[in-house]
Amino acid sequence: MTLNRQLYLTGKIRVYETQLFGRGEFSRFTENKNTQAFLRELKDTRYGRHLKDDGLEGAASRYIKKMYLELNKDMGADAIILDAFMTSHRAAEYIGLLKKRAAETGEKRIVSVPSDSPAAVKKAVKKLGSSEDLSDREIEKAFMDAASQLYLNKFSSPKLKQLWRDHIDIKNFLNNIRHTRPGLYFEGGHIDLSFWDYSDCRREIPAKLRARAFMKAVSSDDSPENYERRLEDWMAGRLRELRKITFGPEPVCAFFLTLITEARNLAAVYTGLQMGLAARDIRENLFYSYV
């Protein structure tokens, strides 16, 4: 990106940041009596124009895609950084597509993607074509590994490269806490895959892992059930720092990741209302330390 383009994009980001939902808005959202009332309230927000018959999930996905395309076209060569951080969202969409097709046809098999799909998406789908395992985790691994292989060495920002590597390590750590099946850890982190295959962090957290900066967010007397929230808060702090940078790909990508978290919060509110949970219980499942 040229300097003028960087300044232009950062200016747009500063405006968009003022529109992010904070604790007050989410507190109000959780007080709705049902999902219909919640969606009616969202119609008056920037998500409103994207609401259709498929409800909030489709609206959030369309809004994120709109913002992705808007930011991507102005980033030049740095657009590959945004593509990398969009990968988790694309993997989730692909998993949803396979499940929908499986419900319609009775079998789960890969689905081709458009020819203009990002390189990492095409690489992942090609690899899945020869895989006998189409579990959600295997699909996510194919997508994330393809992003690391194709994009990581092209990152122009050392800070964002560090963020990506930490992001991968955190995902691998949480996967190790929940499962210990070898072979389903992601490439691209600071920590070698072999470390995860032969570690069981449910029993102890090795010194090598303790040395990572993000692990400082996890207290030794914390229960594993709290790890994800602590690490999400740590990541939110990193995003707030990156958003303060005057110009460059850092504030753009940090804002975009913040937006994805916001959309996830909205989905959590919708699900909580759908289940009839109390507002307080819904708020306990939200991550809004990014604002």
Descriptive notes:
The chain contains 14 helices and no strands. The chain has helices at residues 3-17, 23-30, 35-42, 55-72, 79-85, 87-105, 119-128, 136-151, 158-178, 193-197, 207-210, 227-243, 249-275, 279-283. Helices cover 62% and strands 0% of the residues. The model has no long low-confidence stretch (mean pLDDT 86). With 291 residues, the chain is mainly α.
Question: In short, what is this structure?
Answer:
The chain is mostly helical.
Please name the defining characteristics of this protein.
single chain; 291 residues; mainly alpha; 14 helices
Backbone shape: globular
Number of helices: 14
State the secondary-structure class: mainly alpha
Low-confidence stretches: none
Mean pLDDT level: 86
**Sheet having the most strands:** none
Give the termini separation: 27 Å
Strand content: under 5%
Helix content: 55-70%
Secondary-structure element string: HHHHHHHHHHHHHH
Topology, number of strands = 0
Q: What's the gyration radius in Å?
A: 19 Å
